[in-house]
């Protein structure tokens, strides 16, 4: 399924972005899931962390807007549903809603947060991590500039919501949550290969707006301009990730 001009292919995702779920364990620890708890994994992707929560004894449901990701999660035996996180339909069923690396793809944060509040039981918690202010700033600026040069509106192409702590705290509180913790975490992240894999996996909303005849050339130019900034002395690509990690309880 294509959301925000972005297609989520489970095989490509596992190959280029397996680190996303691997680096999600601190937020699982923040969730502190208890055996038998009903948990919603919001934007569960292919279900790598959903499966971890299930293995910890939780009764987990995953939801994601991508049909292909949900198909993969179901093949792995998970209870997973295709659903837009900005239009959740659950009501008072979960002890906790968990989310890793998904909320920044949803540009209507208030719709997400109110759907989460509705999905939770009284006193339920919302614990997550996603891209915060300054996330992948170097990559984002390069992509925005690259499409603008070819007459594409960078605001329309940009699929991300990377809020500040103040912005997200205010939205959580307005929806009736008490914020237990919220912080921005700089997390420079080594990529499993060349930046081209990252651009193909996460940069589609920009690159798909370009004429196919200039797409490859644009990626080649991006690689050349980013190499001096985003590789370490051994030539390993390091992406400038900044995460916003939070834990909130429904008042
Ligand atoms: C980077 S992946 C993270 C997946 C998983 N949580 C993990 O940690 O590996 C982002 C996921 O957000 C999902 N997503 C994007 N927009 C969404 C929306 N509006 N509603 C639900 N899921 C969405 C994508 O389909 C994708 O699977």
UniProtKB/TrEMBL annotation:
Task: Output this protein's name.
Answer: Methyltransferase domain-containing protein
Gene3D superfamilies, per the entry: Vaccinia Virus protein VP39
Instruction: Say if the entry is tagged with keyword Hydrolase.
Output: no
Specify the domain of life of the species encoding this protein.
Bacteria
A single Pfam family it belongs to is Methyltransf_11
Q: Any idea which GO molecular function terms this record carries?
A: S-adenosylmethionine-dependent methyltransferase activity
Which biological processes are named by the entry's GO terms?
A: methylation
Q: Where is the Methyltransferase type domain?
A: 40-127
What UniProt keywords are attached to this protein's entry? Methyltransferase, Transferase
Question: What InterPro entries would the database entry show?
Answer: Methyltransf_11, SAM-dependent_MTases_sf
């Amino acid at each position: 399924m294509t959301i925000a001009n972005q297609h989520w292919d489970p095989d490509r995702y596992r190959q280029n972005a397996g680190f996303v779920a691997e680096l999600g364990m601190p937020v699982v620890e923040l969730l502190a899931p208890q055996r038998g708890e009903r948990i919603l994994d919001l934007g569960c992707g292919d279900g790598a962390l959903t499966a971890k929560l299930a293995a910890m004894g939780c009764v987990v449901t995953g939801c994601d807007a991508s049909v292909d990701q949900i198909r993969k999660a179901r093949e792995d035996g998970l209870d997973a549903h295709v659903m837009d996180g900005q239009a959740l339909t659950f009501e008072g069923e979960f002890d906790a809603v968990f989310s890793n690396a998904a909320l920044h793809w949803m540009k209507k944060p208030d719709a997400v947060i109110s759907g989460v509040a509705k999905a939770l039981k009284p006193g339920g918690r919302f614990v997550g991590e996603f891209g915060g202010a300054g996330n992948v700033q170097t990559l984002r600026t390069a992509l925005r500039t690259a499409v603008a040069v070819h007459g594409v509106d960078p605001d329309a192409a940009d699929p991300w919501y990377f809020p500040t702590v103040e912005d997200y705290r205010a939205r959580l509180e307005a929806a009736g949550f008490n914020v237990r913790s919220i912080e921005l975490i700089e997390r420079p992240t080594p990529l499993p290969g060349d930046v081209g894999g990252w651009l193909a996996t996460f940069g589609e909303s920009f690159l798909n707006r370009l004429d196919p005849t200039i797409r490859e050339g644009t990626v080649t130019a991006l690689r050349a301009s980013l190499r001096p900034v985003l590789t370490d002395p051994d030539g390993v690509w390091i992406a400038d990730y900044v995460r916003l990690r939070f834990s909130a309880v429904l008042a």
